[in-house]
Description:
This protein has 8 domains: 26-112, no CATH class; 120-242, Immunoglobulins (Immunoglobulin-like, Sandwich); 245-329, Sandwich (Immunoglobulin-like); 333-411, Immunoglobulin-like; 417-498; 501-570, Sandwich (Immunoglobulin-like); 745-853, Immunoglobulin-like (Sandwich); 855-884.
Amino acid sequence: MRLNKIRFFLLLFLAFISGLLTSLCTDISPPSFRVTQVNATHWLAEGFYEIGSEVYLNETTTLSSSYLTTYKVKYETPINTVDTSVLRCKIEYGVPTSSVGTVLLGYRLEFVINYGGNFTVLNLSVLDPIKKPNWCGAERIHKINVTIWDPYGYNYVSLVLLELADVRLMWNKTGFYEVDDPYDRVDLLGGNVTGSGAVLTLTFWIKPHWSIGGLVDVYVYANDTSNNLVCETVFSDALYFVNCTKIVNLQLKKQYYEPNETAWISGYVVYNGTTVGTYDYLTINGTAVSVSENGFFNYTFTVPSLAGNYTYVLELAHGVEKYLINITVAKNRIEVRVLTEYNETVPLEDVVVEIRDLETGELVKRVHGGAEIITEIEAGSYTITVYVHGIKLFKGNVSVTGAIVEVDVPKLKRVIDYLGRLRPFITNATVKLALYDNETRRAVFLLSGSGVVRFVYYCNVTQLPCILCNVTYHIVELSKKRVIVDLEIGSTANVTVIDPRYLKVTVINPFGRVYPLNIKLLNITQYIEIENATTYLLPAMNMTELIVDYRGIAKKLAFSLLTDKNVTVMYPIAEVICYKNVTRYLWSNATSMKVHDISYSKFNWSRVEILLSGEGWVALAVDLGLLPTKIAVESNVTCNYRLNGTVLYVYCKTSSTARIVVEDEYKLTIELLDRLGNYLPVEVTVVINGSEVSGRQIIESFLPPAMYVVEVPVNVSGFNLYGISEVCIELSEDKVLRFEYRVPSKFRDVKVVTIRETNNTVILYFEGYLIDYYGNPIVNRLINVLVYDGGKLLTNLTGLTDSTGYFTTETTELVKGRKYTLVFEYSGDDTYVESKYTTTCEVPKKVSAPIPAPTVTPLEYIILVLIGIALALAIATAVIKLRRKVIAIRSLRYI
């Protein structure tokens, strides 16, 4: 026994030591949770527990307001306790030991889920109004709905108070209460409470009395005492209480009665402004009448025994008006009813009943009315004549002995239309044929007689009917209700009255795009606008006109509208994008339009071919969007055109197909100048893409957009081209090309000037002028004079032209008795064309003894002296200027 105890304590000690070691060696961190709100009703929850590096819990789940998915741990399942606002989660998990087993450790985690937002009244509404949105009827149960948002959960709302007029209704955790209602305006019959998440919904069941009416503001107060939250909201004109009634569908058995005959009055009582029936206290001539809950009443009574007119007054306790019912207890009277020949009642107007004394023929009474005429009369014998629209329909004798004499006149003829309606007609002619064609919706009548007869037809249609007749007629009345005509008949007449027709006009653009169109139709005498592809009911017409207009180009179409029609109109409108990246529109009222791009490469839709089919005058419009410099129009038919803004209108007359070409053109200007800036004074022929164009100074051509090669001549009348003679350009806008020519030059007044002679030689020099094409001097240019003797160059002399173009050369010595060739040369430059002048010079021998030459200072010596003087003067002038400048600068230094 003692040994067993020792063993027990030893094992217990070992377990304690093992647990202690385990606790010391194991790093146990407390579990943690993180809850993140996703939206008003969902959260993201994450929880984890770690032992060393092992993860025992790491799970993410979505929470709703009242449910949390159970977390899973390695050894134990956690216990979750959740209410609507606080989530409490108890998690138990175990730590394994080596020998004893599992030690349970418990943690309790508690946190508040907040729905977000503010504590507020969301909405107030009537769930079952008698008229939307918020009409409430007296003595009717209504449900007033109030919704509250509490961020801590709906069950935290402590109290809600409603005030309407002087009535106060309240809800708290214990129930619904009527707090104050001093004038007994409302009965609170109970309520209902529902909640979900942050939303509390209260439904107050109320029954308003007749003492509350009109628009009422509702004040709502709510609080959350646990979280110290309060909100107040006023809903203006939130409820409309209807506390008055009216009678609808009031009916009387009939108006005229025999003495002591049974009569009845019925109808419905409804809330004023609605069609909802209700009970209200009703009296008829002071007698209470039973009214059902849905408002129906039927009052049965016996009319008085004495003849006369009686009034019955209907009054509601809460009615908005009184209702008067008049009946007549008859004296002696005549009731005339005009019927069809099949004893059918049809509506008529302009019925006249003449009552004459049978013996004297004296007119006793003339009464106007409709198909039924009732008139009082004394007892006696009478002749009665009935007229309808001036046509005598009936004449007969009656004796009035009793209270009522009924006279039925089954004389009306009628046809039945496609809807089964009776259409009466009256005529004083003989009717041979009367029928209504349902397919064409027209009534056809064949009448016979002579002279002027009247024809009356009640059509009762929604648009004016159309009359067709083969004899002369005069319209007395033409309306939607009836047709009255006077016919001049020789023997027979055909009369056709056509009902309104259905017309659908569909305008189609063969190019596919839809554009806003103005569509008009001639409706008898005036045009009306109609929509595309829409069906209209219109008066039948012998001829009408349809106009389809797009931006000033109208297409007209005339047709008969005696039958239903679907009219399809082709109205072509094309849309293209041109080389300028601008949209261009083309439209026409022709029967058809075809559009082709015949432009040069790269310049799409700059040259357009339009083929128009039709007869007579047709119109074409081209909206260029962006105007070129010039628009060229070609046509194979007679045409006129005008430009309005960016739109070109072309009007052409054709019998089949018109071909119209519309082309953009731009101005190509070629300026021909010389190097002096003058326009060339001569005519020049320029070649543009192989075609020659001639002109002076400036050559202008209007050309379509394309690539062009422009060639100018190299030499024109001595003018020599300066630069290239061929240019390739792209013409899509106005362009100016300038070509410059060097000016021709020539020598004038060339002379040989002798200075002195010896026995065998002559010392001389050459002079002359160098001028241009216009005779103006060419200044400061070098002149070469080549002297040849028998083809051998002896010398090359030079000279420089002055401001007058004059030049002189150096002196040279030539042998007498020989003939020399002189070549004057100007090599030309960027401005002037080179020039050459060739002549001969013969120096004769002198036979006589030479006369001593006078002492003459050689010309070259004189020139050298003059040059020296000029240099001296120039140096002196420069020194003086330099000195002045130095003095001026020095003086400035001391300012």
